[in-house]
Amino acid sequence: MNEEAREHFLKALERDPESGLAHAYLALADMIIGGCSAAPRAVLDQARDRALHAIAVSPDEGRCHRILALTLLWRGCDEYEAAEKHFARALDLNPYDADTLAQTGYFRALRGDGEAGLALLDQAIQLNPMHPSWYYFDRGVALFIAGRYREAAASFSCLPLKGVRQWARLAACHALDGDTEKAKACVREGRALDSGLTVADILADLRIECAENCDRLRTGLERAGWDNTPA
Q1: SS3 letters for 23-50?
Q2: Is residue 224 part of a domain?
């Protein structure tokens, strides 16, 4: 899907090389294809530069600022102050954009305030009840950081297609909620997809700013037996 979208954005830029939105969404497609926060650094660098060009040609387009903020978020916690400014600018330009509200909420959660993030995500869902499935992941992260593990597990469970890292989050939630059997079942699902992915690998791709929240995820994965479960 993202590969097809990328081709459409390239065609849009052939017709209008200075379309800020086309540049921004091409940057977003490249990052998603590359693996978001796990994308190679060169992909994230190129996406950031393209998103910067997008806001240069379309400075009053909130979606361009939101996508630039995402590129900065996925580049790492040392970019969070800059990301904060562009999420805020995106909301200033369009406070009723559901995706901007949702991703700003996700960002608030990553910075340590799960409840504030959850409030923004719930506002986004009210505006767009037929939302894309990634809202479930972002809301699950906010609930996890707020310490609401059972609700976080319910949100992650709504994802129609789960990758190994989504199974890992779900396993950690069940383990921290005390449901060992469900946790182990999620571990088996995840390790069937990638038997070589370790707890350390999972933590390395996190963009959670607070070390305490990273430690809670580590604890959940260890209780679930992630590294000790054969594929």
Answers
A1: HHHHHHHHHHHHCHHHCCHHHHHHHHHH
A2: yes
